[in-house]
Amino acid sequence: MGMYLMRQIGSRGTYGNPILPDFMVFLNWKELPWYWYGFDSFPFAMLMVLLAPGLLAFVFGWFAFRSRVTGVYLSIITQALTYALLLAFFRNDMGFGGNNGLTDFKDILGFNVQAQATRAALFSMTCVMLIAGFLIARGIVVSKLGKVVIAIRDAESRTRFLGYRVDRFKLFVFTVSACMAGVAGALYVPQVGIINPSEFAPANSIETVIWVAVGGRGTLVGAALGGVVVNYAKTIFTSGFMAPYWLFALGALFVFVTIFMPKGILGTAQDWWEKRRRPVPTTTPPEPAPAEGRA
Amino acid sequence: MIASSPGQLTSSLLYLDGVSVSFDGFKAIRGLSLTIEPGEMRAIIGPNGAGKTTMMDIITGKTKPDVGTVMFGGSIDLTRLDEAAIANLGIGRKFQKPTVFDFHTIEDNILLALKAPRTVARTLFWKTAAAQQKRIDDILGIIKLGDARERLAGSLSHGQKQWLEIGMLLAQDPKLLLVDEPAAGMTDGETAETAVLLKEIARDHSVIVVEHDMGFIRELGVKVTVLHEGSVLAEGPLDQVSANERVVEVYLGR
Amino acid sequence: MRILSCLLRNLALAMLLALHPGAAPAQNADDPFVRLAADSFSETNRAIEGLIAQAHPQAAVIIEALAEGRLLAGGGAVVVRMPDGRLLDARTGATLPAAPAGLAAVRLNNSVRRTIQGALGGLGLLHPDAGRRIAAAEAVFKSRDASLLPVLEGAIAKESDPRAKAALRQAQAAILIGKSDAPPFDRIAAIDVLRERGDQDALATLRSLPADASASLKEAQARAVSDIEGRLALWRAGQNLWYGLSLGSVLLLAAIGLAITFGVMGVINMAHGEMVMIGAYTTFIVQEVIRTSAPGLFDYSLLIAVPLAFLVAGLVGIAIERGVIRFLYGRPLETLLATWGISLILQQAVRTAFGPTNREVGAPAFMSGAFEIGEMAITWNRLWIIVFAILVFAALLAILKLTPIGLQMRAVTQNRRMASAMGIRTGRVDALTFGLGSGVAGLAGVALSQIDNVSPNLGQSYIIDSFMVVVFGGVGNLWGTLVAAMTLGVANKLLEPYAGAVLGKIALLVFIILFIQKRPRGLFALKGRAVEA
What we know:
By secondary structure, chain A is mainly α.
């Protein structure tokens, strides 16, 4: 998305080059690298928004799941991968603007990104996408495939002995979620106005996991709820006199949620509701095995 | 030891010859040879550490043998396949510790096991057909869990879980069933019923049962193979085997 | 001194005749002092050469003054301002009562500076002190100023100090290489001399052989160059290996605590890097206290900091284990999240207390400086850190293998319920194990404070590397951690010259990712039923 927006700046950049983004002119590049071609077309850029992360996740996942890297190991090597990407994108010769990233966007589909109306449109688009993403995820979860995936979560090798190729199911879910993350990124860039490699920092993916944990794992609504709650808190905390304490609050939130609310807001609320309804609970199922880190 | 002539190779459903595997120097299986004929039910006994579970791991592809031949249906080399491929060939396995999907309903457990295409796309757009639904209902009836179909499997008792797992095996409709300690943790009544159920299943399936419970084995009334330290110690009817001095020595206690 | 200048004059005259066979005797325009006053860089250059050629008695004073911008010229006069402020007439050396009007400093450019350097070299070649002669010979070696060749030859003839003689010969050789009209035999000998010297400078000098040299000369040069290159490549490899081991020891220090908490206990401690940071800040505080209250103890500050850092980080670790982690055993994802939260809190706490900027941690005398082995430079701080890493490793191994608490730790991690049934207080063992791992991280902080910036972000830069090391080495295996740290360190440094620092690092990360695909349990992993359960 950032790439599309960079191309849309066109000749209005500081250096006035109609084709090359400013940073490339600055770096004395003579022509556009091959992977920048096509990004002046909006539909192509949108396609890449889905394909690029999807493909990356697919290749990575194919390796990881085929060799049955699970749990902690998976979390660690996904972190290592993002770290490697972070380092790579910080390099100027990667062609993505190095440290500074891509910024100074002007318009999107001909509308000024700064304009109030555009921003409102982008926001509504985000809501639409959230609902769409929710529906897709919902569809997956209630399908038989969703049942297989839950089965894999709870008893991976049993699922395998039933004849399911666990790696392919994981790969599917992994790739779909990467595509959704790609959409999220595409919506993020025009609204925030900058994208740079520090967004690759492992901290960000871990923060995303905490959104899900806060909202309530194992439910889709929980993930959305968590994202909104944590980021609303972030907005309150990081503006005004509380600013220096935001990291304390975030850190404490991590600890609090994991220890006292392992099921998140939604799960805790549900428990509380069921306890009220049925004072004597039937045999409760055991704790779910922790979902594998998709951080 | 079993003499393995080439003739058996083609006719047996499962054929193990000279299989060995070791973990960090410890030989869990040494030179194990075993054949199962189509439609046969076989009981396997042996003290702890005799290699019963490891043998099942090898057959189902969880563990790869260091040396040896493992053939299925006379021509398929199981050592080259992974668990899912072996399962799809028609080998079903029930684990020692009952392993069902705790967070799925009993019906969904059976549905997941039901013989059907296992690809990602086919499961994503799955619709249960009427015939399949009937099969599920039948199995639920056989394992006496029809009334509990909406309950989460995690809430079942130990014996019920064992039965659910056997039901899942039935749903898979495999050619060969590997059943690891089906009677463990069951009351005497349940044990007897399980034996009846297994005999029922054995009519149109090949079955390997691993069990400790001698009463249960006796009730099955089938050929018995005794494993000890990773290889076959004796084989034959239970009475003959239990009269064998070495079997008495290593297994029936001294 | 008279004899010396006499000699110089003779030599210089001979040289002058050799270089400019038809040169007329000094006329007014050739007078170096006229040239100096001409305010032209090329004239200044020739003036310097002229002064040397004449072996002018004031040459040393004048050239030195020129180099330091104290040579003034104007209105036909050339004046030296001495460092004490007196003004001397450059030609005679007589003190001037008053400055003539219109004086300005003679200007310098790089060409003039080079000429000066060569000239000073020529003057120094005959210095009575052998050390100065060697230094002068080195200067000539670099400047390759052909005009000094006669001076050199004279100096070699009467040189008695072997080291100085070698240096002079090398300087001579350097000049001969570039001097097309020198006898070919001498030039071949010169190539040999340079080959024996065998360092980067010799290589550069050899490469300066003019393109029109004879074939035999070129062949000798090519052989000498490849000889030296081979030698240098070996040294460079040695140096890279050293850097690699040094990086490896840093990785080992950072990772070994994690090998305990993650490897032995299975706890993913994302706050591990912050334990390292706490160790580094403890060192900082110790040094601050010593600076203000007992400056004499400064050299011992690290020795004091080591146990303190261990204690502080260890206690923080125990607090984290008792306060948070013990509620989360068996839930790795939650542990990851909670410890990540703790790491945020610790970072922010340090940022609030000490500020976000880097803090200065000094190096005691025994850790400063460097020494050279052949072409390798070895800094003391890196050497000590390697030693320290090995000591920490050995100590940790001993604790785990030989002490009762080590036995208990291993028992608890292998079978918690059984250990508890045997009367081991598992809670206490957990806390101590975690404290030990954290304390070791604190020790790493002390070492890192010597080579890295002490800032609140210190820990973050090591956490991923540390996990990589532990995972690569095989979880729960200290020796694996050692081998992995050293392998990754050395591989990183050996890759760097080819791929660059960042690409080298990326290559390693990708390698580890692929490696984990192949051997998901690391280099040294247990195999069997138990680990697959």
